[in-house]
Automatic annotation (TrEMBL):
Its EC number is 2.3.1.21. Belongs to the carnitine/choline acetyltransferase family. The keyword Manganese does not apply. One of its GO terms (biological process) is fatty acid beta-oxidation. It is an enzyme of class 2 (transferase). The keyword Acyltransferase applies. The chain crosses the membrane at residues 54-75, 100-122. Keywords: Acyltransferase, Fatty acid metabolism, Lipid metabolism, Membrane, Mitochondrion, Transferase, Transmembrane, Transmembrane helix, Transport. PANTHER family: CARNITINE O-ACYLTRANSFERASE, CARNITINE O-PALMITOYLTRANSFERASE. This is carnitine O-palmitoyltransferase. GO terms for cellular component: mitochondrial outer membrane. Residues 1-47 form the Carnitine O-palmitoyltransferase N-terminal domain. GO terms for molecular function: carnitine O-palmitoyltransferase activity.
Length: 760
């Protein structure tokens, strides 16, 4: 193989005349340039570490302090109040040298002290969250002082500049958590059930709860975040069921636009855009994500494991493996796996060169090796069989080398041989098939263990499937938004749909991975296929109105939609259910998510009044109360005063201590029959959506959390559109995604929005 020969820097043979040494100068040059690139990255990391370490000051501010001190001393004044003289006494130098060095030492100490003071002030300001609960136009004096945060945020920060200044997630008082929990379940329980639960909760609070709380507070003092490590391990990595459908989620392409119909070209630009994003992450050139409309930064820790990361199976728990760098991507096409090098001589290949390499893969007519085409099903099925197969057949030899090529790749690419998107005579049905394809594909043509996998379809449509343990959807949405915008608006295509740029036709062929796979390896396909066939997905673009008309009511769009979902579920199932809405806790260091329990006393009162035919004058104030209550619940979740993460951690502590809590056991066994999430849109504002309305995104979705429930993802696009992704299981006769979507459409639609009536 040509690429194998080029990978060898030198060869030697022993002859009767001696050793014949043959050097490959091209290979040595590749090694040299790769080393240069590696050292540049090391220097960049050192530079960024210095800049982050002194933020919100700058390294150049040290020189300013030194000059100021020396100028003051020149005017025969002692700014150190005697400290410079004391430093001089310990320096074995001449008098003039002592003065200069002692001034530099004092200036440096003063500079470091000022930095610590600024960082303390920044952390203090970032720890204040009461601004979130104040009404518009009624700002307290404390919040007015808090706006000084803008001054400390005026310098251009790096991606991780705020990390050490973000506050730690606080442990809520157990009394508050129990009280909020009882409020959240009141609309779901009968009077006798609620009385029993209240007794359980009170007994827990007064007895075992306080003991568990002390251990949790001890962890909070020691750990950066008292939730995140346990959440990652016990919710994600220790799960032994399939991660396909149950954990992984998907993101879609533009709804109306396909930038090019050429599959290889779309892959070329997409891969380039992703690698440009990785470069920005490595150099920390991305701006820190902020709370919309404010200067408040969000934790960026999830970006660290975005690329070069894979989830590897284990007997008891999986492990997330991350590598510092990777110069290749893994590609799957028609049952074959390839390693595609994306760097040459230390430079990133151009989009046109990557397109050229992808086209070579598409033109390769070689058949899959035995068992190769269905190999990816191992990542789609149960984790235990995959762990056993990995140890037995992939721990050495060619299988290990090929598996390493996939797992160490920057990310995974599938060149799908199907066409997808909203097209043809059945656009709605095709959107549903598009969603299912991204969620699970054929169960063997994705690598579900990779941090994310990109899918490029035959007609140029694209999408992604993301593994959930390393990060949450907003982080992946940020990546995907950058990728789509860079692809369409910055890189672009030629008139005939190909990538721009020149091609070096001496590039080595993409490397075909080699396997020796026994027939019993693909035991997971049947399990994965049954799970995939059971999923019912429906994508619904709601075009009647969007957040523009909702805001005219002075109502939060998210609260509006969540109340609509409560009404839809009530009409669908004739009652209420425990509802999960994902909120972020990235105001805190290493924060991830918290649950907003959207089914509240106020929302259920509004739904009942509406369904009982009450007059608008009675429903309107109930709707206001329900929306205000939902906004308050969301704010509490964001600021660390949620319910479920605290109770989850108390449960983990109880397991470590070997004690049983009937209250915690019952709380954590309650099913989430309505699991919802909002996908953020335009986090980066790389293009103007108003002037380019055809480039709206469809967002993404996920599978149902409960076997008899719904998974609902929605994205509020622009001012006039809301996209819904609804999933359920065919095996439950009570849940039908199409039916639930029709209820959502009915319930979200308002017959009159011109003034202030609320009538669904």
């Amino acid at each position: 193989m040509a690429e194998a020969h080029q990978a060898v820097a030198f060869q030697f043979t022993i002859t009767p005349e001696g050793i014949d040494l043959q050097l490959s100068y091209q290979a040595l040059n590749q090694i040299y340039l790769s080393g240069v690139r590696s050292w540049k990255k090391r220097v960049s990391r050192m530079r960024n570490s210095l800049i982050k370490g002194v933020y919100p000051a700058s390294p150049s501010s040290w020189l300013f302090v030194v000059i100021a001190i020396l100028a003051t001393m020149y005017m025969r004044s002692d700014p150190s109040m005697g400290l410079i003289t004391k430093i001089q006494q310990h320096l074995p130098l001449s008098s003039q040298g002592q003065t200069m060095v002692s001034a530099l030492v004092f200036s440096t100490l003063l500079w470091l002290s000022l930095i610590l003071a600024l960082r303390f002030c920044l952390k203090l300001l970032l720890s204040y969250h009461q601004w979130m609960f104040e009404q518009h136009g009624r700002v307290s004096n404390v919040t007015k002082v808090w706006t000084l945060l803008r001054l400390l945020s005026s310098r251009k920060p790096l991606l991780y500049s705020y990390q050490t200044s973000l506050p730690h997630l606080p442990v809520p008082p157990i009394k508050d958590t129990v009280s909020r929990y009882l409020q959240s379940v009141r609309p779901l329980l009968t009077d006798p059930e609620y009385k029993r639960m209240t007794e359980l909760a009170n007994h827990f609070e007064l007895n075992l709860g306080n003991r568990l709380q002390r251990y949790l507070k001890l962890k909070a003092l020691w750990a950066t975040n008292y939730v995140s490590d346990w959440w990652e391990e016990y919710i994600y990595l220790r799960s032994r069921g399939p991660i396909m459908v149950n954990s992984n989620y998907y993101g879609m392409d533009f709804l109306y636009v396909t930038p090019t119909p050429v599959q290889a070209a779309r892959a070329g630009n997409t891969i380039t855009a992703l690698l440009l994003y990785r470069r920005k992450v490595n150099r920390e050139e991305l701006k820190p994500t902020r709370v919309p409309g404010t200067v408040i930064p969000l934790c960026a820790a999830q970006c660290e494991r975005m690329f070069n990361t894979t989830r590897t199976p284990g007997d008891q728990t999986d492990v997330l493996q991350h590598w510092q760098d990777s110069e290749f991507v893994a590609v799957y096409h028609k049952g074959r796996y390839f390693r595609l090098w994306v760097y040459r001589a230390g430079r990133l290949l151009s989009p046109r060169e990557i397109e050229y390499q992808i086209q070579r893969i598409l033109d390769d007519l070689s058949p899959p090796q035995p068992g190769e085409d269905k190999l990816g099903a191992l990542t789609a099925g149960d984790r235990m069989p995959w762990s056993r197969m990995r140890k037995q057949y992939f721990s050495s030899g060619i299988n290990k080398r090929s598996l390493d090529a996939i797992e160490r790749a920057a990310f995974f690419i599938t060149l799908d041989d199907e066409e997808q998107g909203m097209r043809g005579e059945d656009p709605a049905g095709n959107l549903d098939r598009y969603a299912k394809s991204l969620l699970h594909g054929k169960c063997y043509d994705r690598w579900f263990d990779k941090s994310f996998s990109i899918v490029i379809y035959k007609n140029g449509k694209s999408g992604l499937n993301a593994e959930h343990s390393w990060a949450d959807a907003p982080t992946v949405a940020h990546l995907w938004e950058y990728t789509l915008a860079t692809d369409a608006f910055q890189l672009g295509y030629t008139e005939d749909g190909h990538c721009k740029g020149d091609v070096d036709r001496t590039l080595p062929m993409p490397q075909r991975l080699v396997w020796d796979i026994p027939s019993e390896v693909c035991i997971s396909l049947a399990v994965a296929q049954a799970l995939a066939d059971d999923v019912d997905c429906h994508v619904f673009p709601f075009r009647e109105f969007g957040k523009g008309r909702i805001k005219k009511l002075r109502v939060s769009p998210d609260a509006f939609i969540q109340i609509g979902l409560q009404l839809a579920y009530y009409r669908d199932r004739g009652g209420f259910c425990l509802t999960y809405e994902a909120s972020m806790t990235r105001l805190f260091r290493e924060g991830r998510t918290e649950t907003v329990r959207s089914c509240s006393n106020e929302s259920s009162a509004f739904v009942k009044a509406l369904e009982n035919g009450e007059a608008e004058e009675q429903c309107r104030p109930l709707f206001r109360l329900a929306s205000e209550r939902h906004q308050n619940l969301y704010r509490l979740a964001m600021t660390g005063a949620g319910i479920d993460r605290h109770l989850f951690c108390l449960y983990v502590v109880s397991k470590y201590l070997g004690v049983e809590s009937p209250f915690l056991k019952e709380v954590l066994s309650e099913p989430w029959r309505l699991s919802t999430s909002q996908t953020p849109v335009q986090q980066m504002e790389l293009f103007d959506l108003k002037n380019n309305p055809e480039f709206i995104s469809l967002g993404g979705g996920f599978g149902p959390v409960a076997d008899d429930g719904y998974g609902v993802s929605y994205i509020i696009v622009g001012e006039d559109m809301i996209n819904f992704h609804v999933s359920s299981k065919h095996s439950c006769s009570q849940t039908v995604s199409n039916t639930f979507v029709s209820f959502i459409s009915q319930c979200v639609y308002m017959h009159s929005l011109k003034s202030d009536p609320v009538r669904f």
